[in-house]
Amino acid sequence: MQNIKRTLRVNFFKTDAGNEPVRVWLKSLSSEEKKIIGEDIKTVQFGWPIGMPLVRPLGGNLYETRSDLKDKIARIFFTVESDKMILLHGFMKKDQKIPQKEINLARKRLADSKGGD
Predict the structure, then answer these.
(1) Which domains does the chain have, with CATH numbers?
(2) Which of 38, 88, 45 is nearest to 67 (CA)?
(3) Degrees (nearest 5) of the Cα angle 106, 108, 114?
């Protein structure tokens, strides 16, 4: 069996207070939802760079993963720095268009993550 090497390490964005919003959000989901999202993140982790339909670039080193759940769609915004995939923001998408407030929050966290680990 071939040993597959991961391309990216996965990190959670941390606030100044030490909170990890994406980790908290993921913990609030059902085990089935967590499993689907986790598999999608793992696909990105081991297959980077990867494109549609799983990953869409949003510009400025911001990307989204698109996880199809039973009756909704989960989105996780992330950035890639060196060999790290930093999960910035997660939410359930309700409309066809991504709400601007969700993108703005991810961009703010992206700016806040610069220089941190």
Answers:
(1) 9-112 (3.30.2310.20)
(2) 38
(3) 100
78 CB contacts (<8 Å, ≥6 apart)? Answer: 44, 62, 63, 64, 65, 85, 86, 87, 88
- pLDDT tens-digit series, residues 18-76: 999 999 999 999 999 999 999 999 999 999 999 999 999 999 999 999 999 988 999 99
Strand partners, 75: 66, 91
Split at pLDDT 50, 70, 90, the class of 113 is: confident
Q: pTM of the entire structure? A: 0.90
Distance CA 23, CA 25 (A): 5
User: Taking the alpha carbons of 18, 104, 63, 52 in that order, is the dihedral positive or negative?
Assistant: positive
Residues in the chain: 117
CA atoms 96, 40, 6, 4: torsion sign: negative
Residue with tokens 């700016």: 111
